[in-house]
Amino acid sequence: MRAFAFAFGTALAIIGYSNFARGGTVSSIAVDNPWFRFLLPTLPAGGYMTLRNRTDRPALLTAAHSEACGKMMLHESVSENGRDKMVGVKSIVIPAHGNFAFRPGLYHVMCMQPNMRPGQAVAVTLEFEHLAPLTVEFRVYGATGLRAW
Q1: Quick one: what percent of the chain has pLDDT higher than 70?
Q2: pTM for the full predicted model
Q3: What own/partner pairs with CB < 8 Å and gap ≥ 24 does 72-76 have?
Q4: Domains along the chain?
């Protein structure tokens, strides 16, 4: 019976890890379609995804980091006096039982000094207030945002 319980627990852990690594799921936050738009190593890469909050309380994304980036920041693209610019934001609120989409032209995760190339997947850790960090694999696409492989 112990061997069965161990095998069953191990199988659940493997299934949970594979789901976690592909997009990112923990009991409270899910990450759908995480990807980077990579242009050149000398230009920042933009990261996009949809965060789904499965809890009864708003969740607060406070930071992101990756070994594939020299520095990562949360950004919003805004238009001011007819000019488009990117503004750093300290945090992002994901409503209770709601979603928040990072999309081109709106919010994104800015990756400075990107060390990646189209066709790769790079790990990004998302930090939340009062929740465990969540590490997610982001697919890397080229300038068009389309699959590179």
Answers
A1: 79
A2: 0.79
A3: 72/47, 72/109, 72/110, 72/111, 72/112, 72/124, 73/109, 73/110, 73/112, 74/107, 74/109, 74/110, 75/107, 75/108, 75/109, 75/110, 76/106, 76/107
A4: 2-141 (2.60.40.1890)
